[in-house]
Specification:
Blueprint lengths: L1 H17 L2 H10 L13 H8 L2 H29 L5 H17 L12 H11 L1 H18 L2 H10 L1 H8 L4 H15 L3 H6 L14
Helix pairs in contact: 1-4, 1-5, 2-3, 2-4, 3-4, 4-5, 4-6, 5-6, 5-10, 6-7, 7-8, 7-9, 8-10, 9-10
Amino acid sequence: MEIVYLVLLGLISYLSGSFPSAFVVVKVFTGKNVMEHGTHNVGTMNTHRTTGNKPLTILVLLLDLAKGYLPFYLASIWGGWFAIGSDQNTIYLIAGLFAILGHNYSIFLKFKGGKGLATGAGFLLGLAPALILAWCAVWVFILVTTQYSVLGQLVASALVPLYSWFWARDYFWVSIAIAVPIVVKHAPRMKGVFAGKEPKMYFTEKGEK
């Protein structure tokens, strides 16, 4: 039965991550399809680019964080519920990985989605908050020095296992499972950075920098 419970956890985590927060919020409050604007992805950053509305952006951010935190919370109590014999880190790895896969490849959006940042951050917020602080420090440093937010996001996310090695070594493999799908979704935009075509800092539909 152990494998059944782990599969069930993975499914619940995937469905949690799959909830298209940005798509629903932007559609309900503005009538726009967030996937037809900005970077065409479903996430916090593109909500800002599409609407230029800070309250809506914050709402999407909170929902996306919750999409990651809920699987963490379930994983933290899963063993107690079902007396699973698996190592707790294995349970965390499954929950975190599938939550981000759900966000990046949502079943509700024909397996399209976002890039996993806020959902991954929500999971890490429960797992090891120190990793979020390290991630933010690297992102801000690269953003300030290069003005490329996406570059900061990719590098900061790729280094999550390194942060874990120093500050939360017990979760090293969990951090890899969280970092990889985020990096994979960000990597294609590096072409724009190297070609000088990627917009710097933040921008909205009106082209504001």
